[in-house]
Amino acid sequence: MICIGAGPTGLACAIEAKRAGLRPLVIDKGVLCNSLYRYPVNMVFFTTPELLEIGDLPFVSAAEKPTRVEALKYYRKCVEHYDLELRLGETVTRVEGSDGNFRVHTRVTENNPAIKARDGGSGAANDDPVVERQKGVSSRESHGDQELSRATKSTPLLAHEKVLPAVHVFALTGYHPDFDFLRQLGVKLDLKTNKPALDAQTLESNVPGLYLAGVVIGGNHTSEIFIENGRFHGKQIIAALTGTTLAVAQP
Ligand SMILES: Cc1cc2nc3c(=O)[nH]c(=O)nc-3n(C[C@H](O)[C@H](O)[C@H](O)COP(=O)(O)OP(=O)(O)OC[C@H]3O[C@@H](n4cnc5c(N)ncnc54)[C@H](O)[C@@H]3O)c2cc1C
Q1: In the chain, how many domains are there?
Q2: Which of 58, 77, 91, 98 is least surrounded by CB atoms within 10 angstroms?
Q3: Nearest protein CA to atom 53 of ligand 1, as residue
Q4: What tens digit of pLDDT does each residue of 125-155 get?
Q5: Looking at ligand 1, which residue's alpha carbon is closest to its atom 4?
């Protein structure tokens, strides 16, 4: 199972998946909680900390409302606690296939922080070999460990491109939804609101096996879904996948 987006919703989904015995892989084009990372530096949340909690882990802040830094530290701790598998600085470019047999294409994000750190801040990645990596990802088995790496000077445009097989794909791509990306996945968007077509109970989109969660569900109306309510979408999806009954939380 692949979760696209390591925001609060993506992390909450991955946690629920892991609790249900699945093995999720979370991919983000930026850093962990990229949207929160890009908030104004001294921002204070309008939400109290308990309403930002995921995975039943307590979030305690020094003041009544948490700061951006406290939230970033909290979500980092959640990742560590649940030992989530993350790929940061990797953009999902397209998804092929169908339910039970997806292939998720990724590309190392230009100027990604991991490359910057490795190259001492230059952002250059000229010495990277072309890497094609294949990992088996299924809903109830561990990710396959087979990994293919090969350098091919004649195909520079494929630098950093990877293809990952997946049984299910979750698109949790964010505070400012990338509508072109969603259309490219085959998701139908409402002409006026850009809200995606999905089953309100299971959050499965019109593409079987592709689930949507978090702020992306609100289309243009990003004010309808916050961390406060988006954090429960993972429970809904995993309940649907595992056949568990769950009351649907209203936004
Ligand atoms: C200034 C500000 C203050 C806010 N204050 C609050 C508050 O107090 N309380 C509250 O509940 N909410 C608040 N929000 C809203 C909150 O930030 C969002 O509701 C929340 O971030 C949504 O979480 P998400 O996981 O759905 O999306 P995001 O946090 O946006 O995460 C989506 C992730 O997907 C990644 N992504 C996108 N496309 C791709 C791709 N193609 N490949 C790989 N990765 C991709 C992005 O990098 C991002 O990390 C605030 C928002 C702003 C801007």
Answers
A1: 1
A2: 58
A3: 39
A4: 333 222 223 233 333 333 432 332 332 333 3
A5: 45
